[in-house]
Design goal:
Blueprint (H helix, E strand, L loop, with lengths): L2 E8 L6 H17 L4 E4 L26 H13 L2 E11 L2 E9 L5 E6 L5 E2 L2 E2 L13 E4 L2 E5 L8 H9 L4 E5 L3 E3 L3 H23 L2 E5 L2 E4 L2 E4 L3 E3 L5 E4 L6 E8 L1 H9 L22
Parallel strand pairs: 1-2, 2-3, 9-10, 10-12
Antiparallel strand pairs: 1-17, 3-4, 4-5, 6-7, 8-9, 11-14, 12-15, 13-14, 15-16
Length: 288
């Protein structure tokens, strides 16, 4: 299938997981009704962004994967005939938790999971307290509507992660995300921070000759203002579509997957890679 339609659900936090699930089911249905074939939800869509501080009670928000959420979304995917990417707080074992994306195919089958590899620790983003770095590797999935890679939020700053899923054949890289401004920084750094976030991902699209879809949340949560602006970039890094900065919405975007092969033929970055020279990338820093 050359043309695939993405449905990117840009939403906000709700008072409870049950309310959030009901609302996101409605948004998934809205996306499907608009023709979306692959539907991606924002990072940790069932809850507020709870990593704004360290609180052991927040571990109670986690669940197993597969588990309660996939039991709802798998039948929904089958009913609507859509692929669903759902970012969740995973309880793997006693005291062991991950930030994990579940991938569900259009026949309702659970294809697997990706555990977020890069875990940030910044003011208002205290993720190292909650999440163990992922150990799934950088995976891709053959879905009914195309071969996709899924990475999560902080992963989006690392060209190595994008490159590895692209080398595994991903035609579209999805980034479920929760990123925003701290009130104390927005006036001075807000525009620059957003520019950096968007630019680095557009660069991944160009360097790998694929589509990139970043799905952010919106709304104010304590000191954070999530900046939305969910977008899709084509292999040239051009913005194909972008959502608003502050509104809940479903962004529906058509992507011609033929463009991936066409781009890679005229700009053959994979062909010209000097893999014999890259061994130092496995070092933490080149000081020895």
């Amino acid at each position: 299938m050359a043309i695939v339609t993405l449905g990117l659900v840009q939403s906000r936090a709700y008072a409870s997981k049950a309310e959030s699930m009901d609302r996101h089911v409605a948004l998934i249905r809205e996306a499907a009704a608009k023709g979306a074939q692959i539907i991606c939800l924002q990072e940790l869509f069932l809850t507020e962004y709870f990593c704004k501080g360290e609180d052991v009670d927040r571990f109670d928000l986690a669940e197993t994967i597969p588990g309660p959420t996939t039991e709802v979304l798998c039948p929904l995917a089958k009913e609507l005939g859509v692929v669903i990417i759902a970012s969740l707080f995973e309880k793997r074992g006693p005291g062991l938790y991950h930030n994990t994306a579940a991938i569900i195919d259009a026949d309702g089958s659970y294809l697997g999971k990706y555990r977020k590899s890069h875990i940030p620790e910044d003011p208002g983003f205290n993720e190292k307290f909650y999440f163990t770095p992922g150990d799934t590797g950088y995976k891709v999935w053959d879905t009914k509507f195309g071969r996709i890679g899924v990475l999560v939020c902080w992963d989006q700053w690392y060209p190595e992660a994008a490159r590895l899923v692209a080398l595994a054949g991903a035609e579209i890289i999805f980034y479920p995300t929760a990123i925003g401004w701290l009130k104390s920084e927005k006036a001075e750094l807000g525009a620059a921070q957003h520019c950096a976030w968007e630019t680095v991902q557009r660069g991944h699209a160009v360097a790998n000759g694929c589509f990139v879809a970043a799905v952010n949340r919106v709304g104010h949560e304590e000191e954070s203002e999530f900046w939305g602006q969910t977008f899709v970039a084509n292999p040239y890094g051009e913005i194909a579509a972008k959502a608003s900065v502050d509104s809940e919405e479903v962004l529906v975007v058509k992507c011609d997957l033929k463009a991936v092969e066409d781009f890679r033929r005229i700009w053959p970055f994979f062909r010209d890679r000097r893999i014999d020279t890259y061994a130092p990338l496995t070092k933490r820093y080149l000081d020895e």
